[in-house]
Amino acid sequence: MLGLTLLAVLKGGDIIVDKEGLRKDLLAWRLKEVRALAEEYDKVFKVLLELLNDENPHVRANVVQVLIDMLSEGKLDGERKKLALDAVLGLVKDDDERVALKALEFINALLETGELTDEEYERVTEALKDVVKSGMPVLGEYAAEGLGKLGAKVAKIAYKIIRWLFSLIGSSKKREVQSAAITALTEMAMKTDDRKVLNEVFDGIADLLAHPDPYVVERALYSIERMLSREKDISTRNKLKAITRIKELKGDVKLGVKASQVLEKLEKSAVTSEELVSETEAKKRLEISQYSIDDIERLLDAGKTEIVAEMAKLDPEVMDRVLGMLESDDYSRRMDALWIVARLTSHLTPSDAYRILPVLGDFLKSKNPWARETAARVLADIYALYPGTSKFFSSLLDTLLKSGKERDVEGALELMARLSDRLPSREMLSGMLKLVLKLLDDDRTRGVTLRVIAREAQKLLDLDTEDLFALEDKLKEIYGKDGGKYDQIIAGLVDVIDDILKMRRQGIVPTSG
Fold first, then answer.
1. 445, exposed or middle or buried, with CB in 10 Å at 0-12, 13-18, 19+?
2. Domain limits of the chain?
3. Quick check: keyword Repeat in the entry (predicted)?
4. What is the dotted CATH code of the domain comprising 303-424?
5. 420-436 CB burial, b ≥16 within 10 A, e <16
6. Structure pTM?
């Protein structure tokens, strides 16, 4: 039952608002009821805004959620919208991360309406820039999404934002800042109706392909791949420039595969005459143009997942529908959605990525090996794209490994392997090895751990010599346990390690690290 928010309705229709009652309703999550009153009575709305200064972060966050809901229902306009923006803008720097995140969600939703004054756009721009520049995980990525939307809406602000973001990438050494800046630029390019803005971003991103930091280069590759879904709006000059830059990356050990994939798409799109487009490509474009969001179910039933994937690249509503299918009660729909998402990771906005993290984590426990492996690959890609997800990954791995369940542990090890593929480092490999050694000591997890090590034996080449000796010693220590059930796998792994160590002594393979 709603608290005593309205103490009395006086003669003439005036009301007295019980602020403490409203506060209790917010803490009790009676948000729908609070929203209804705020929509009907201006006094309730104003008291609601006052509670944005409440000492309890749950109250502040829930007030912002009410405002988000009002905005989505079209119940926040005119003077109310102005008052709400004024009150919420300062919360992007709130000490409580959840409150700051809610404030950014509100601003991003508000930017979708595109109905702010020039002065309000400027204030929002400065607030979002401050968050991006701070390098705060999660918050920086949501702020970047907002900057992208803002630049796409207001062309005269766009160029200032673009120059500032590229300058930030050049001056900052923090990956969280560089990542957020590239996210903002990519979002702007994808959402703008102005071809000049799109090409300004594409041109600058192509220059980043020559950046000295491999991480920035990789993010630039993903950005270009995503922008190619708007290939018709990208100038031939920009495409040729990107082709030249990417050809220089094909020999790169870490980036070569992705560079080749993007290069192939670029070279196809660089064809200047429609008559030269292949017959297959022309048919594909024509086929995609014939469908709408209402055709998704029918297309998936017909096995045309590739067409749905292409539609999702171009239409945020289709992408939203596909992401929702990851939680469908229909198993085949979940698998369809996972297949599509795995091919569109670079097209995920920060909001998209954070939304699907929990369900992807659940896929790691699947009986289906393909689902586990695919989910692990997508999760690793998301981690590389959005470093702010690191807390989620730490929590997920901790939960899976502590459960002791074979399938959970296998999912965790699969994810660890894919993370090391995407962001290889000596520190990461050494940290993973410490976890593996503990798992080998545990009777519950020894078997599955050995099977995964055998499956990922190629990665032993990446371990430094000290770590190889540590793993070999542990394998010899557990040899004969479990009635010799795993001795064949153990012996095979020991032989592989001995061969690697021998080749290193002979200089045949380099010492890792």
1. buried
2. 303-424, 429-513
3. yes
4. 1.25.10.10
5. bbbeeeeeebeebbeeb
6. 0.79
Q: What is the DSSP string of 244-256?
A: HHHHTTTT-TTTH
What's the distance, CA 119 to chain centroid? 31
pLDDT along the chain (513 residues), means of 10: 46 70 92 92 92 95 96 90 94 94 94 84 94 91 93 90 96 92 95 94 95 92 92 91 89 78 84 51 67 90 92 90 96 96 93 95 94 96 89 92 91 93 81 91 93 92 91 94 92 94 81 56
* Short-list 269, 246, 267, CA closest to 258: 246
**Which pairs with CB-CB distance under 8 Å and at least 24 residues apart come from 154-158?**
154/121, 155/192, 155/194, 155/196, 155/197, 157/121, 157/122, 157/125, 158/188, 158/192, 158/194, 158/197, 158/200
DSSP 94: -
Eight-class DSSP state of 102: H
Distance between terminal CA atoms of the chain? 63
Q: Is 263 helix (H, G, I), strand (E, B) or coil?
A: helix
- How is residue 164 written in tokens? 């500032």
Phi, psi of 15 (to 5 degrees): -130, 160
Task: Report yes or no: 512 and 463 within 8 Å, Cβ to Cβ.
Answer: yes
Q: In 10 A of CB 495, how many CB atoms? A: 10
Distance CA 472, CA 463 (A): 12
Q: Which residues contact 39 (CB under 8 A, 6 or more apart)?
A: 45, 70, 75
- One-letter amino acid identity for 315? D
Distance CA 194, CA 203 (A): 14
State the DSSP code for 212: S
Q: Where are the alpha helices (DSSP H) in 28-117?
A: 31-40, 42-50, 57-72, 78-89, 97-113
Report DSSP state, residue 271. -
For the record, the structure tokens of 279 come out as 């017959």
How far apart are the C-alpha atoms of 365 and 361, rounded to whole Å?
Answer: 8
Q: Token pair for residue 204?
A: 């600058």
Instruction: Confirm if 105 and 63 have CB atoms less than 8 A apart.
Output: no
Contact in structure between 135 and 100 (CB atoms under 8 Å): no
